[in-house]
Design goal:
The chain is an alpha+beta fold. It has a domain of 66 residues: 2-Layer Sandwich (Ybab, Chain: A). 56% of the residues lie in helices and 17% in strands. A 3-stranded antiparallel sheet has the order 1-2-3. Helix 1 packs antiparallel against helix 2. GO terms for molecular function: DNA binding. Binds to DNA and alters its conformation. May be involved in regulation of gene expression, nucleoid organization and DNA protection.
Length: 104
Amino acid sequence: MRGNMNNMMKQMQKMQKKMMKAQEELHEMTFEASAGGGMVTVTANGKKEVTDVEIKEEVVDPDDVEMLQDLIIAATNDVLKQIDDKTEATMGQFTKGLNMPGMF
């Protein structure tokens, strides 16, 4: 019985190292999303930090600031969803079948 417990602990430590490596790799990834046919582009890293916002000059209309705001929101939400989807796909492999609500 004790040998099984030691073996299980080693397996858990191994899995934890793999999870940490996968998370580090996710954090280093770059994600990009655009809205308005490329008029607004938002870039973020896997930590959900926005690293760049690119706005085409022709979309800047002082009389229609709302449209620009909407495009920025749409692109930002899209890039955050991409990060969530990639995180779920990558980290979900470690929690498959464990039935742990709230994990990733």
